[in-house]
Amino acid sequence: MLYHLIQWLDARYDIPGAGLFQYLSFRAAMGIILALLIGMIFGRKVIDILRRKQIGEDIRELGLQGQMEKKGTPTMGGVVILGSVLIPILLFGDLTNIYIRLMILSTLWLGTIGFLDDYIKVFRKNKGGLQGRFKIFGQVGLGIIVGTFMCFNPNIIVKEKVEPGTLNAEVRVTGGESDRRTVYLSDEGSKTKTTIPFVKNNEFDYHWFAPGDSRTSDMITWIIYILAATFIITAVSNGANLTDGLDGLSAGVSASIVAALGILAYLGGNVIYADYLNIMYIPASGELVVFAAAFLGALIGFIWYNCFPAQVFMGDTGSLAIGGMIAVFALLIRKELLLPILCGVFLVEGLSVIIQVSYFKYTKRKYGEGRRIFLMSPLHHHYQIKGYPEAKITVRFWIIQLLLAAITLVTLKIR
User: Fold this and answer.
1) Could you write out the DSSP letters of every residue in 303-329?
2) Is 171 helix (H, G, I), strand (E, B) or coil?
3) How far apart are CA 237 and CA 343, in angstroms?
4) How far is CA 66 from CA 70, 236, 243, in A?
5) pLDDT for 145
6) Residue 204's beta-bridge partner residues?
7) H runs (alpha helix) in 125-214
């Protein structure tokens, strides 16, 4: 809103310094600063309110070191993260941008699902929380919305490089006379094209599953894309939720992921860098850098109170929303197939649970008693039982995630 207000006032009264708001870098910097301040200043007030309302975590006895000391720690702190993201983006983001609108919708949508889950657990004293089918319904609903907009919205396009002189090519010349760079871009590329690592041109098109120009093939492609979007949103959201088991773990891991996504959004939304790296150029997607900056600031601000020993937990209000927001962001910048690498910690945490449960059920049927591969799942609890201090596990997972983020960025040039 502030962005649009400054634009309107500058058009009428020529305000000095108003041009700063035209720069992504300035608005991204303001977004991360404001998000940090909101998280650090108002986070304390939210913690006090949660403590007065006795909205505390109900800890199950699992035999983990220091576990019972966390009983009663305020939960539902994810509202701080959501507020720290939304307020800066409403002030400094371009609210007419389709990508920003989809991210705001996704934040509110997933935050509501997580909030309802926490509300049922805390106030209704139902440890199961929101029933699984309602969570799935919400995630499928968001997948349908995102998939439909990505496939059919006229404001969402991909510009593809073509050879010089190609019909309908758009020529952009930048730089001075001594440094002229020409970028040739077609009018519009496939709306369902995305980035895939380690292959030629790093490109993959969902439309390849249903070739042709008929409405039927378009409809099949839309269905396939929605199924993929729903699976990605569900998987990353639940992966972030499972990772939220140690103080500062999920927030710290997510911060590295969001920083990498912000860099990818900037590169893909800038015609010069997209040409230099030979990657698809996505007009208007650069505005997502402002969202990523606010998101990163919100996570770091939350870590201020969530690091060991935690003064507040994010609850499902935060973890479900964070994972889903990461997934939708990746879908919008067409980097969702990089998520297995970028979100490697989430992936391993989720797989550890699936492997543990599956193996336990299999051995129970075969031998009459269930056996385990890990001492406990998710994986971070396995290391807790082995005697590793909680803070050491968290920091080492952060370091691994930083490495995965670096590898993800490197894949842009590995093909």
Assistant:
1) HHHHSSSPS---HHHHHHHHHHHHHHH
2) strand
3) 11
4) 7, 28, 18
5) 95
6) 194
7) 132-152
Q: Please count the CA atoms within 13 angstroms of the CA of 132 that sit on its side-chain side.
A: 2
Query: Is the CB of residue 319 less than 8 Å from the CB of residue 78?
Result: yes
Residue 319 to residues 79, 146, 155, 257, 342: CA-CA distances in angstroms?
A: 11, 20, 30, 14, 17
- For 113-167, what is each residue's pLDDT tens digit? 999 999 998 888 787 788 888 888 999 999 999 999 998 898 998 876 544 444 3
Nearest to 332 by CA among 195, 227, 220: 195
Q: Are 196 and 340 in contact (CB under 8 A)?
A: no
The DSSP secondary-structure symbol of 214 reads: S
Q: Is the dihedral of CA 147, 150, 151, 152 positive or negative?
A: positive
- For the entire predicted model, the pTM comes to 0.92
d(CA 100, CA 61): 42
| Residue 52, both tokens | 């007065």
Label residue 176 exposed, middle or buried (CB < 10 Å: 0-12, 13-18, 19+): exposed
| 233 phi and psi angles, rounded to 5 deg | -60, -45
**Residue ranges for the chain with pLDDT beneath 70:** 56-68, 160-189, 415
For residue 114, give the nearest of 289, 208, 272, 233 by alpha carbon. 233
Q: Could you tell me how many residues make up the chain? A: 415
Note whether 324 and 336 are within 8 A (CB): no
HSE value, Cβ hemisphere, 13 Å, CA-based, for 292? 27
Q: Which residue has the tokens 């031998």?
A: 367
Cβ within 8 Å of residue 377, ≥6 positions away? 352, 353, 355, 356, 357
The Cα 165–Cα 188 span in angstroms is 16
Tokens, residue 5: 């207000």
Token output for 226: 């929605």
